[in-house]
């Protein structure tokens, strides 16, 4: 269960949250990931659901809830302070779910999200870790990195150094079924000081709605959202 504080119920609660952040989890998944007894895992997960720290997806699985994003927004991170409003604007303008990713080693982590309220949608749970080898968000987070820091990723990536050069040229990336079958996405970089990419702002949804060239319609919305986020960092 990771680190131990000496307060058992707190450690188990944190373990349940971390297990749900690893991907949508049925109760059996929570038990397997945490090794917490089934009755205890169920009691803690339901309690976290009451406080909106966990919610359930369309299949009844536990995923991180909106209260986590609300708490994160109070932590003094200027990017996250601005992200909730900007992602809501991107979602409302595009009609699609919006996410913000940061790089963490060989992964990208969803640090904020605004989900489409109704209809067919793709859900990326807050805290979800996705590989840096596929998807438009991964392309953006790799495109402005020094070549020697991403060369090992390109060995197994679904994109090439040539496609990353194209991402830099046009200022955004798109993917169609690259990370997950049936899902399309568009992403744009959020620059910090010194033109360093500190995050990727993304829109994702089903291919049948976004189409095979989603960047043509959605990239202007994302680049506008990225500029709003950048304003909080300068």
From TrEMBL:
This is IclR family transcriptional regulator. Residues 67-234 form the IclR-ED domain. Keywords: DNA-binding, Transcription, Transcription regulation. PROSITE patterns: HTH_ICLR, ICLR_ED. Pfam families: HTH_IclR, IclR_C. Residues 7-66 form the HTH iclR-type domain. Signal peptide: none annotated. It comes from Jatrophihabitans lederbergiae.
